[in-house]
Amino acid sequence: MTPSDVKATLSFSDGSPSMELPIYKGTIGPDVIDIRKLYAQTGKFTYDPGFLSTASCNSTITYIDGDKGELLYRGYPIEQLAEKCDFLETCYLLLNGELPNQSQRTAFNQLVTHHTMVNEQMQFFLRGFRRDAHPMAIMTGLVGAMSAFYHDSTDVHNPQHREISAIRLIAKMPTLVAMAYKYNVGQPYVYPKNDLSYAGNFMRMMFATPCEEYQQNDVLVRAMDRIFILHADHEQNASTSTVRLCGSSGTNPFAAIAAGVACLWGPAHGGANEAALNMLEDVQKMGGVEKIGEFIRQVKEKNSTVRLMGFGHRVYKNYDPRAKLMRETCHEVLDALGLHDDPIFKLAMALEKIALEDEYFVARKLYPNVDFYSGIVQRAIGIPVSLFTAVFALARTVGWIAQLNEMIGDPEYKIGRPRQLFSGAAPRNVKPISERA
Ligand code: CMC
Q1: In whole angstroms, what is the distance from residue 246 CA to residue 415 CA?
Q2: In angstroms, rounded to a whole number, what is the distance separating the alpha carbons of residues 93 and 286?
Q3: Positive/negative CA dihedral, 313, 316, 320, 322
């Protein structure tokens, strides 16, 4: 951290001594005020629910400029990575800080590829779930259960354990997501095939059956790979912060990543892609394009709980750069599959146009986010809506691991332990039950 020449001074109106707070500069982005000694020196905490003004860590992985609509992984613009790299190169970059050269790329691909199979016992564990269980419920269980299968890589303080658990998680997530899907639909599991690309292998495990080999469509495989790249990391979002907080206790990497999966499930976060598609299907049932006006009115009503899912972002107050790329991919996929006339896709395009022009959304800087388009792309590819968030979890796993490993390797790392403003009852005595109101 680079100290700034500028210092902040915190003063109090009751005459208590003021306090000087150091400021640090990042490479880019806002400076931070270091409040670590605040409690020791003043007996006061800061109050910032939802972390609106709090940098929870010092990181070198991902940078977002929400006003400019900019996203960088290790300094590289997401647009360049999406155009020039594949997902495994992106994984290498996030984990190691640099893009691989040719021989590093080959070695990394081989390493990941040779860990794609999961312990055969996993399928018996999977059988304990109801067939209609939500895939994210299954994924939370399966990822957590990995710590019971891979005992030799559970010590988060051992760099070799961290390395092998990272590879295992990245390699096995597609296998587990596809297994969760096959279990849902009652089809036999398809084992990984190691001469395929990461995305191609995932799609084959999803869609092949013993009776019919899956014919790979390159446009769709590229689209899937792009979904993975765009979702790979997003700095200190809710699930990543969950992984860091969970991992800060020294728990094993599989348990920490399972916590991230659980957090991602929520509709305000990764669950938004599923929620956006469900919303489109609801509007379609209401009457489709004709009823968009009525639906938008419901969203805008004061105190309405209806949100336009797939719109808005805590950090992006400009177009989400991932959404721009996903929109492009969306059109490529719709063209390749001849789906431009599908009513849900037509509805999505009409909704996007109206929302981008409507004063309510413009004034609040609510633009479509990546999940609005990734849901449409996934649906077109044939991924069932309930599996969308599991695909997001698959892609985000590398980001979670990179962030977890960065935290554990940070000499300033401590268990995460926020404090609170207590506004409950002051101390009082327990009355005998006969005297209680
Ligand atoms: N539809 C309608 N109104 C909205 C929406 C929306 N999607 N998002 C925000 N608003 C309004 C909100 O009602 C508020 O209006 P007002 O000032 O009149 O009270 C204003 O915009 C600010 O909203 P906020 O809730 O304070 O904003 P936030 O930064 O806390 O929320 C968000 C960010 C992503 C949770 C929210 O925009 C949202 O719920 N969006 C829909 C869910 C979604 O698509 N999430 C995916 C995010 S991208 C993928 C990921 O990173 O996981």
Answers
A1: 9
A2: 45
A3: negative
Entry pTM: 0.93
Cα three-residue angle 422-313-233, rounded to 5 degrees: 95
With the most atoms of ligand 1 within 8 angstroms of its CB, the residue from 261, 295, 364 to mutate is 364
Q: Mean pLDDT, to the nearest integer, of 143-167?
A: 92
User: CA distances (Å), 205 to each of 130, 135, 302, in order?
Assistant: 21, 15, 46
By alpha-carbon position, which residue is closest to atom 35 of ligand 1? 268
Widest distance between CA atoms in the chain: 80
Q: Is the pLDDT of residue 212 over 90?
A: no
Strand partners, 3: 24
Is 155 tagged catalytic? Answer: no
- The minimum-distance atom of ligand 1 relative to the CA of 270 is 52
311 Cα to the center of ligand 1, angstroms: 7
Work out the percent of the chain whose per-residue pLDDT is above 90. 83
pLDDT in tens, 224-240: 999 999 999 999 999 99
CA distances from 351 to 51, 270, 365, 398 (A): 31, 21, 16, 33
> Is 282 among the catalytic positions?
no
Contact at 8 Å (CB) between 249 and 408? no
Written as six digits, the tokens of 333 are 């996929």
- Minimum CA distance residue for ligand 1 atom 10: 312
Contact yes or no for 253/170 (Cβ under 8 A): no
Residues touching ligand 1 (Cβ under 6 Å) are 234, 237, 268-270, 272, 299, 307-314, 364, 366, 369-371
Q: Cα-Cα-Cα-Cα dihedral of 263, 396, 328, 371, to 10°?
A: 0
